[in-house]
Model the fold of this input.
Amino acid sequence: MTDRAFSVVRAGALTTVQDLGRPGHAHLGVPRAGALDEPAHRLANRLVGNPGSAAALETTLTGCAVRVRTATTVAVTGAPCPVTVDGRPAPWGAPVHVPAGAVLDAGPATHGLRSHLAFAGGIDTEPVLGSRAADLLSGLGPDPLTEGAVLPLGAPYGPAATADAVPHPGPVTELLLPFLPGPRDAWFTAAGLHTLATGRFRVSPASNRIGLRTEGPPLERARTGELPSEGMPLGALQVPPDGLPVLFLHDHPTTGGYPVIGVVPERYLAPAAQAAPGTPVRFLRMR
Amino acid sequence: MRPLPVGEHGLLIELDSAEKVEALHAELLRRAADGALPPLREIVPAARTVLLDGLADPRGLLAELAAWDIPPLTAGDRPAVEIPVRYDGPDLLDVAALWDCTADEVVRRHCATEFHVAFCGFAPGFGYLTGLPEPLHVPRRDTPRTKVPVGSVALAGPYTGVYPRSSPGGWQLIGTTDTVLWDPRREPAALLTPGTRVRFVPQETAR
Done:
């Protein structure tokens, strides 16, 4: 292996390699995968001079630490966290020069859930169906990081972008999820739809990259029985028999058998990536 | 044909039968290959529906769809994929009891059936194969197994499937194959894609 690589010093709770995912293969049962907080992923890449499609790391809650084998520019975005290089403070949301052999540590999120770490040149693991994204549902792409693992880096694309200000999402104190009803809203009573649009929900600790599960008032069904498997888009709000909506995120299955009461448009999904368990959730009916 | 809205960029088209789903899916692929479909990200056939996702203007396509003439499905010229199977599954005798026949007769009927892939899902490379007549449809097991071995050939409801990798599952296991269902280094990665015809061929069991 070349010197363009890093080794994992602290893997954190769950750190995965992500890019923009592998859309277009749902008919083969392949989830999209890809960075959950896509704007943060693109920004981290831009700060180190990469195209938005380059592969980077996505952490969960506790961050991660890596030792680079060669001098590298790194940027941390997404959930704000303390960043250090060999123990010395470094900026979050800005290009950071990491000397050869030094340890870059992205600490626990001070708020939000997932930080995104881009390296100049991107992570250069073997693509699967055109993407380096780790897909936790079907096990495609690189395994989640483990201590001691070594990941290759690509050659830097060019000079890092300069930025004097980066968008800061701010703490997610309440997750607002606008949704369009359908395709199976007719499986719910008017009261059930009203509960979705007005009820107070919160993020369940059972959430993951597959789905953001919620706790709250169950939605009343107008129809019982089973629905044959059908294709599900990113952002689908699927309601299992317990009546509690699950918002499907990037690693969601491609078909399901429970009714989808509504769909949250993709542009509203990045905040869902940063909503920690317990965060209040409100669903807003768009029409 | 009943179209349902799916978010801002999707349409779920519901049809009366699995055959109509497959005919519409085949027509969509034909039109996509001819460049006669608007750009879209996914076409996902399932049991009674086809999902079209990533359309700039779902309403525009909706208006067009109603005027389409969709020819019924023909067998196609591509030869069937043959999958050699050792009929050694732990549920073979249970299936024989459900079918009210001997284990050998289960093997004979399964191999005599021409299957085809109605749709995929559950795991990359997993195809839902239809073709068994209704009297031979079997229920899922009451208690799903926590681990079904890779290559297991299984039955549930109207479907036959082959597990592309080890996973939990509640289907009735009748046999095992060494055929590789999914290999991302292969083109195409999935052996079974929607519409593919499939035949199972009995393989001697080493005893």
User: Anything to note?
Assistant: The domain at 2-66 of chain B is CATH 3.30.1360.40 (Gyrase A; domain 2). Residues 18-33 of chain B form the longest helix (16 residues). The longest strand of chain B covers residues 123-130.
